[in-house]
Design brief:
Blueprint lengths: L7 E18 L5 E21 L4 E5 L11 H13 L4 E7 L10 H16 L6 H9 L13 E5 L4 E5 L6 E5 L7 H6 L11 H8 L10 H7 L1 H11 L6 E3 L6 E3 L3 H10 L4 E4 L3 H8 L2 E2 L8 H8 L5
Parallel strand pairs: 3-4
Antiparallel strand pairs: 1-2, 1-11, 2-4, 2-5, 5-6, 7-9, 7-10, 8-9
């Protein structure tokens, strides 16, 4: 960056969980799960610029978010700076549109694109498997945002198999004002022996999205009954598949034109967008100096074609 005042802007996209099944509890206290991650067109914007301090400086537009060393963006930048002995200061400003605590992966996405940017900008040439390992050390959902599109997630969500089973569709995201703690929702999960075939496996073989379910809904609705009421209101509008994303509190559905009009009337603050396949995900991330040409170039194609199942 020749001009120290130059700003590079990157979009950081959200995800939904199309189906989420709890497989078991691990010895480390986490849960093994099975889910289908899907990137969507809702995004935050991260602005990167050099500073003269030699440090990482992080700020953002939401007062409810901690913009300190506990933030996943800072943790990601810090681990890169320490491992590669980077001396140039970097300022990162975040314009958030993805609500925290909504199950849409905003913080994980922010951390992932920070890693992609720093790797490219400082020409670090980090092997993809190492990027996955770095991401997993900070957050289980972060590795998914290094591949985007549609992916089967297993383990704690960090074992990924890229999929091509879901095309680009119109999607509606309905936001609840409630911010939900992932840790709290998982703490209330009651594990029962399930002899039935995985509904995610049924979807993968049949393509019938209506069979999917999010098994965290039972726990989340028990803690926050108002979330169950929101889902019922959406289903009563004739949508054939409505689901909470992740541990909540946002819901998504795939409406037609008439249903979009009805949803806008009932939920004025909803988001209407589309699901993003892997190619469009990386094309839309971009990495543009003051909104101009991409600087990811060939790296994007490398990320797109990688299959980080380990």
């Amino acid at each position: 960056m020749e001009n120290r005042k130059e700003i590079i802007r990157i979009r950081s996209f959200a995800k939904i969980n199309m189906g989420l099944e709890i497989v078991g509890r691990r010895s480390d206290g986490f849960h093994d799960l099975k889910t289908i991650f899907q990137t969507i067109s809702l995004y935050d914007i991260l602005e990167f610029s050099e500073n003269k301090s030699g440090n990482i400086q992080l700020s953002g537009n939401l007062k409810s978010v901690s913009w300190d060393k506990s933030n996943t963006i800072y943790k990601m930048a810090d681990i890169i700076y320490r491992n590669f002995n980077i001396k140039k200061g970097i300022s990162i400003k975040v314009k958030k549109k993805i609500p925290p605590g909504a199950g849409l992966g905003g913080g994980s996405s922010n951390a992932a694109v920070t890693l992609l940017f720093l790797n490219n900008y400082f020409k670090l040439n980090i092997p993809f498997s190492n990027m996955i390992a770095l991401s997993k050390s900070i957050g289980a959902d972060i590795p998914f945002f290094l591949i985007g599109g549609t992916a089967l997630g297993e383990g704690i969500g960090d074992l990924l198999t890229p999929l091509d089973v879901f095309g680009e569709k119109k999607i509606a995201i309905i936001f609840s004002p409630k911010e939900v703690s992932t840790k709290l929702v998982f703490s209330k999960v009651n594990l029962t022996k399930n002899e039935l075939k995985s509904k995610i496996d049924i979807f993968l073989s049949s393509g019938d999205i209506s069979v999917l379910e999010n098994q965290l809904e039972l726990s989340a609705f028990g803690i926050f009954p108002e979330l169950g009421s929101v889902k019922t209101m959406i289903e009563d509008m004739g949508l054939n598949y409505v689901s909470m994303s992740g541990s909540g509190s946002a819901f998504f559905c795939f409406p037609n034109g008439q249903q979009i009009k009805a949803l806008r009337t009932k939920f004025p603050s909803l988001f209407i967008g589309e699901t993003l396949n892997r190619k469009n995900y990386f094309n839309r991330i971009g990495a543009s100096p003051s909104g101009k040409a991409s600087v990811f170039g060939a790296d994007t194609r490398r990320f797109e074609s990688s299959r980080p199942r380990e």
